[in-house]
Structures are given as structure tokens and as C-alpha cells.
Amino acid sequence: MKQRAHMDGDVIIAGFFPLYALATYPSNNDASAHEEYKLCIFKNYQFVLALIFAIEEINKTHDLLQNLTLGFDICNVQFGISETFKNPFICLFGKIPNYSCMSNSKSIAVLTGPSGLTSAQIGTLLDLYMFPQLTFGPFDHALSDHNKFPALYQMASKDTSIATAMVSLLLHFSWNWVGLLTLQDDSGLWILHELKEEMAKNRVCVAFELAIPNYSLSLKVMALYNQINKSSANVLIIYGDNESLLDLMICIEQYLIKGKVCIMNSQWDLTTKRTYFMLGSSHVPLIFSHHHPDVSGFTDFLKAVNPSKHPEDFFLARLWFLSFNCSDSESDCITWENCPDDASLDWLPGHIFDMTMSGHSYNIYNAVYAVAQALHEILLHQTEAQTMGNGKQTMSSPVELHPFLKNIQFQNPAGDQVILDDKRKLEAQYDILNIWTFPEGLDLEVQIGKFSPYAPHGHQLSLSENMVEWAIETTEPAHSVCSESCGPGFRKSPQEEKTVCCFDCTPCSENEIANDTDMEQCLKCPDHQYSNTERNQCLPRAANFLDYGEPLGMALVFMALSLSTLTAVVLGVFVKHHNTPIVKANNQALSYILLISLIFCFLCSLLFIGPPNTVTCFLQQTTFGVVFTVALSTILAKTVTVVLAFKATSPGRRMRWLLLSGVPNFIIPICTLIQVTLCGLWLGTSPPFIDTDAHSEHGHLIILCNKGSLTAFYCVLGYLGSLALASFTVAFLARNLPDTFNEAKFLTFSMLVFCSVWLTFLPVYHSSKGKVMVAVEVFSILASSTGLLVCIFAPKCYIILIRPDRNLLHGFQDKTWTSRNKPS
């Protein structure tokens, strides 16, 4: 019996299908293994039935080809190069074709596939005669070259979004360290580019990429065993056509590449899964298969198929013989006496024959309808042009089919749009399949998800993760990353000369946080917040300032009030004893002014304590500068008075005139006016303002007064320093002048203390932060004022209160100037 399936019709559609699987004959004597081997050789027989189903469906309808019937002629395609060319054309034309025999053939188109290589080999000869060829395998970029294959049409949708779909799956499982295995052909190079581009967009990295020549798969995989098996990448994306991937997966199984998740694009039939995925512990296959709707009536058609309905189908007869033991011996003369009457294909195990329409069978179904639609358009065109007679319409040449096939667009009975033009093809939608192989031999194909490029971004992938069967004894998804994720509180630090997926985790700096995983940069907390110890959260800072209620503030307030009270007491003593010589000595009025200014010096320190506001910020430095200027200028005036008093020994000398005219009394207003002018310029140009310090104390926000212009601040301090230096210099020169009540030595020592305090203040002030800086300034004010009070007035109070016997005029008799010349 000739190895073909045939049904006559007005127009014939030829099919060149690889109906025999490549399988190794079992070496043991297990009868069941031998029977399974016999059945596996018909693994693609569903292709034949899909073509028959479509033709019978079209012949029964009244909408297409009313005056024509379709037939079919199906031959098996061998995988050898010579057989690939020889057998189909003998089957199609009876001999190697020439122009004359092709013109006499009733065949209108040829269906080839699923291998792109086989279709290309057959298409090379068919294109010489522009014979329409429709391929039903996966979309092959090599076959889309219309200059090379002008008569070839691909039924499968373009894998435009396959890279996006696969990367979406990687992102779902947080896999960012992936190996790529492709064939070294046009499709392999195309998918490599698409995948790498899409992975780069989503920060998924390529651990290794292998483009393997399909003529040396075994040797290539063996040579790269260490690179694949020892890589930390536990996910492999494998892209290729079905036949090539079969060989590749055999190599992967044989070389025991364990623990990898294989993401593939091909539509694997159950026989393939039975043969190469029975070791569930080795690999987890996740397969992206083109989604297609269910074709109504196909399953019922398969159940009703038997050899008596299709007597010219050699392949069905052979399958029936092997499946149901219809005869005791194998021969071409097959008898059916021993066959069960109700035998049906759905009796066969799922791994032998699948009762659901495969993706390839669906493409065959669409290819038959595409040819029928094109024929229908031709007949309508002929009718409109009135080029045919009243007899039955026939096709003159298959070449006439091309203009209609190129532009064809229709909706098949399942509701899908079918377009043959590559540029107008719709994007494919994908079903994500997982193969359940445990318990061993289950071989159940389970849809675990889908991907639709037409869904809104972020909702294109839907997945039932709990339905995935991972490796044996594993219920969790595989882990495939170059570096473990950086948790909150850490940022990613790239490793030198490595991809972005390989990084170290670096703790965030102080006052910075990382509140999510795998953050590139730490986020700085706002000034009013601070980072917690874990560096994963910003906490509100507690407002802080030099407060009256805290111990330091209370101590400074107590000191300021006590010292100002003490100064007031001294002033009261001086007022009470204003007629005594020691009070009258060195200008009584200057002593009162000095004491009053010291009271204000002590009290002005209170402006630095408590919550800062605009008024206190304006008054702090200016009040401090003015009252200290009054105090220092008073001391300078007292010092000058002492010098003038002791130098004015002759009534006719100018110094005596200066002393009597009250020139020293002008020192205070002049010096004070200069300081007031400096403070006025300060307030008018860059005045102090309320500011915050978030860095001095962890967890606290220090509220303080910013000085505004540091230049103005140091000008005020510098002016005070110059007054203090002038007073110290004059007092130092007059320290040895004789007199019982000569206070030049005390003034000298007071200025020495004053300058020492403020020279110490400057470095300590600059090394302090926050409210400590304020406390240092307050303490310096109190210390320097106390130095003036103690050094100048303590000796006098001692004499007034403790040694009143020394507060007499008898000590002046031996001096060079008399009591009448004593300044009042």
C-alpha cells in the first residue's frame, strides 16, 4: 500500500508532514516498551486529521466554493536531504516535476512544516514554479524573506511580543540572572537581540549566551557543560523550532544538567514530553505556546474517525493496526476482523495521541481555510469579469492564487482573524504551559498562565503560581540571581567590571534611609527628621534649644540673675558710701555707669536662653555688643582718667586741662556710637534670623538664631576686642603709678581676665555645635562680666565693708598732688 492519505476533489491541497517520529528502538525485551515505540512513530498524525477536518467542514458549507470540492493528498516527509526533495514531489506529481506535469496537476497549494528547515528545503523547488506553499510551524524569520521565498506564506503569528512575555515571567519570579540558549540561525539571532534589549530595560542580566549550530548540538553542549551546569543562573531560556529543541533537550538530559528551569517557546507534543521530561527532578519546563481558541466539533470528529471512513488513509490504517491489534502479523494487507467495533482514538493514552487541537494543527486548519478563501475570491472575480462559461468553475493555475493569498484577511469559524501578510499579522497571545510528570508517567499538560500584549501594561501576565510543578521535593520557585537582594537600610553598590545584577549591599549613611529592597541610592531624611538605627525609616526630630527648664539653662539663668543681683548690691554699696574717698576716687560717675552696664551685661545673657524668636534673635548680639561696648568704654575712660590724674602734676600743663575739661567723659558716647552704627549696618543688611541645626544632636532639631552676616558679627567682636586691648594697654602703662586709691593695677588685671575669656571663647565657640555653642557664648558673657566686676570692685568693697579704716584721706599727704586737685 502506498504510504499516503488521499481524498479526491476538484482542487487538491497537498500536505507534506513528518508523520514518523525519530525514536530509538527499545533494547530490552519489554513488550510494552516495544508497543509504545510502535505507536510513537505516529506522533504527528493529528496534522492529517486537522487537514481532513477542515476540508470536510468547507465541503459541507454553502458559503465557500459552492461549485468546487476540496480534496487532499498527504505524504510523509523523511528527514534526509534527498528524501525531503524526492518523496513529496513523487507523491504530488507522480515523478520529479516539470512544467507540463505541474500544469496537469490538480494540486493548488502545499502545506509544509513544522520544521522551518524542511519547509525551506521544499520551498526552494516550489518557488521555481511559484507554487503556493503554506507553512504551519513556528514563525521563522528566515522564511519571511520574500525575495528568497516569494511563494511561501507562514500561518503562525509573529512572535513580536515573545521577548516581553518571557521577561515578564522572569520579573514575576524575581529571576534576574538568566542563561540564553538559541540556535545559530536567523531566528536565534533575532531572539537574542530582542531578549537582551528587553532584559536590559528591566535590569535582568545575561549570565551566559550560547548560539549553538544545529548540526553539532551534542558536541557543543558537551563542550559547554561546565559553563551551563556550574553557572549560578538556574533559569535557561531556550528558543528554537520543535525538532531542534528535541535534540537539544536530549543533550541536556544526557549530560545531567540539573536543577534548571527551562523556559521555551516551542509547542511540545505529549510524545516529546513522555520521552524527554519524564525525569521531573532534572528540569522544570515552562513553555510559551501560541494561544488559540477551541475549534468546535474537532474533538467529536476525532472520536468518530476510523479506517472504514477513510479507506485511502494508509497512516490511519497503520495507527489502527498498531493500537488495537487488529491482526496477528504486520503486513501491508491489513484486515479488521479482530478490531473492536467501538474502537476510537480517545482510547489511546494522552502521550500517544492528544484529543485536543495542537497549535500546529490549528495553523493547518487556518491554512486550509486561507486556500479556500483565496479560491472563493478568485471564483467571484472570474464571475464578475464573466470570463467563465456556464459549466463548473475550475482553476487554471496555482500561480493565480498568489495575489489573493497575499491580501487575504478573514475570520475563521473559531472567531480568530487570519492574516497571511507578515506586516499586518496580529501579535500572538501566549498560553504558559507546565508539564506535570509526577507521579512518573503522568505527562499532564497544564496551563498555568497566559500573556496578552493587548492587556494594559502591568496586567499582561496572569499566572497561577501554585499550579506550577517544580522539581521533586521542591515546592518553592527556583532562585536565580547574581547577588542577593539588599534589604531596607542598605543600598546596592555595583561590583567593579560586572553587570548591574551583581552588586554588594552597603549600609546607608547617617540620616539616610532605604525603605525598600534593592534601592540604588539611599534617601536623605528631611531636616526635621532623622534616620532610625536600622536606616529604614525617618523619624520626626524633637525640637530642642537652650531651655530654661533643662539643667544647663537653669544653671546659666541662676548665674546671670545672681551676678546681676550681686552687681546691683555693689552699686547700692557704692551709692550708700558715695562720700567716701575710695568711691570718689577715679571718677564716681564712671563707676556707677560701669556697674549699671555690668548689670545689663549679665541680664543680656538671658536673651540667649529659651525658645528663639525674631525679637530675641535681633536683640541677642546687638544688645550684647552695645552693653559690653559701654562697659569697656567706661573702663577705658577710667583708665585714661587715672593716667591723666597722675600725669597732670603741674597746673600749667595740657594734661591737667584735659582732665579738668572732662574729656574722658566723651569716650563713652563716642565709642558706643561707633558700635551702635556697626549694629545698625548689621541689622540693615543681613540681620540674624531663626534657624535650625539638624546635625549637632542625633534625633534632635536644634532651634537657634543664625547670625546672618558673620562678617558683621566678627566686626562687633573685633571692635570689642580693640576697646579691651586699648584699655589693657593704658592700664598696663599706669599700673605702677603711686597712690593709695590707684586702681590701674585692678583695671589691668580685669582687662587681662576679660581678654583671656574671649580669646578662649573663640576656638571653643567654633568647635561647638547646636545649643552647646549658645551655652559657650552665654558662659563667656557671664565669665567676662564677672571678671570685670570682681577684679575692679571686689578690692573696693573689701575696703568699704571690711577695712573702713583704710578709707581715709591721710594717705594723700605725702603724694605729689593734693586733695583739692583730686577729681570729683
UniProtKB/TrEMBL annotation:
Keyword Glycoprotein: yes or no? yes
Is the keyword Protease assigned to this protein? Answer: no
Q: Which membrane topology describes this protein?
A: Multi-pass membrane protein
Domain G-protein coupled receptors family 3 profile span(s) in chain numbering: 552-816
Q: What protein name is recorded for this chain? A: Vomeronasal type-2 receptor 116-like
> Which SUPFAM superfamilies does the record associate with it?
Periplasmic binding protein-like I
One cellular component term (GO) for this entry is: plasma membrane
Read off the PROSITE patterns from this record: G_PROTEIN_RECEP_F3_4
Q: Where are the transmembrane segments?
A: 552-577, 589-610, 622-646, 658-683, 711-734, 746-766, 778-801
- List the keywords (alphabetical): Cell membrane, G-protein coupled receptor, Glycoprotein, Membrane, Receptor, Signal, Transducer, Transmembrane, Transmembrane helix
| InterPro entries on file | ANF_lig-bd_rcpt, GPCR_3, GPCR_3_9-Cys_dom, GPCR_3_9-Cys_sf, GPCR_3_C, GPCR_3_Ca_sens_rcpt-rel, GPCR_3_vmron_rcpt_2, Peripla_BP_I
Q: Its encoding gene is what?
A: LOC105992195
